[in-house]
Design goal:
- It is built from six helices and 13 strands.
- It is of the alpha/beta class.
- It has one domain (about 1-220): Rossmann fold (3-Layer(aba) Sandwich).
- A hairpin with a 2-residue loop joins strand 9 (about 140-150) and strand 10.
- Helix 2 packs across helix 5 and helix 3 crosses helix 4 (about 125-135).
- The longest helix has 17 residues, at about 35-55.
- The relative contact order is 0.18.
- The model has no long low-confidence stretch (mean pLDDT about 95).
Length: about 250
């Protein structure tokens, strides 16, 4: 079996967010970059578990980005990937990114494609579905459990008010979220081995982007807390009627 895990570079959750060029670009100076947690903790680790269960499994990683993504790719390889492919493109258009991933997946004839449910910077949740459509494959989103019996996958996913269990034959595209696996930390053997694992760089296929970024904006600053004396309930009622509902 061949598995392809999609990973992306995102700012650390503690990074200070700012924008440049008239609020059209993210200010990257001084930002610590990490593997998108949904890609790392759930998609990649579950793929590693499948490989541990069947050592004949081939596990590849793919990311779409520039050379500055190489460190996070090496970390992903240290966790357990066999080799990685970086498509040399800095596009932020979801369709363009999905098309690059689909081209890699098609060329590699993968049986299973894992993505995180979304990235923590754009929160788009669009890539997995687009990749599946471009490959003309079944797609199961928001997966919390994944089991494989031969070429048949049993996938548990979240739905409104409960869970749904889906059965699908490989090949298949699945987006993963919390519950799929437990976070791992690379060990020293993995870190050392990642230095020599293949990291292939290929140029992107020609795709016309469907979207562009018009601008970014920070959320409004939080208002200060207003304290109301316990002996003045009328003022509390007034604030709830006149100000609280406007927040």
């Amino acid at each position: 079996m061949k598995i392809l895990v999609c990973i992306s570079k995102t700012p650390d959750t503690t990074a200070k967010i700012a924008f440049t060029d008239n609020n059209t670009k993210f200010a990257e100076a001084g930002v610590q970059w990490i593997i998108n947690p949904y890609d790392e903790w759930y998609a990649l680790v579950r793929a590693i578990e499948l490989k541990e269960k069947d050592p004949s499994t081939v596990l590849h990683l793919v990311t779409v980005g520039g050379a500055d993504a190489d460190p996070i790719i090496r970390k992903a390889l240290a966790l357990g990937g066999d080799e990685a492919i970086r498509v040399n493109s800095d596009s932020h258009d979801s369709y363009t990114i999905a098309a690059q991933i689909a081209a890699v997946a098609k060329a590699g004839a993968y049986d299973l494609v894992f993505t995180g449910k979304e990235t923590i910077d754009y929160n788009g949740s669009a890539i997995g579905g687009m990749v599946a459509e471009l490959l003309d494959l079944p797609y199961i989103s928001l997966a919390t459990k994944f089991e494989l019996n031969g070429t048949i996958a049993m996938v548990t996913r979240e739905i409104e008010g409960g869970e749904e269990v889906c059965e699908a034959a490989l090949p298949l595209v699945v987006s993963c979220q919390k519950g799929m696996a437990e976070q791992r930390i690379p060990n020293m053997k993995g870190i050392m081995g990642a230095r020599t694992k293949p990291l292939k760089v290929q140029e992107p296929v020609a795709i016309d982007a469907l979207t562009s970024i018009a601008g970014f904006g920070l959320p409004p600053a939080k208002a200060g807390v207003k304290l109301v004396p316990a002996d003045n309930p009328a003022e509390l009622v007034r604030l709830l009627h006149e100000e609280a509902k406007a927040i």
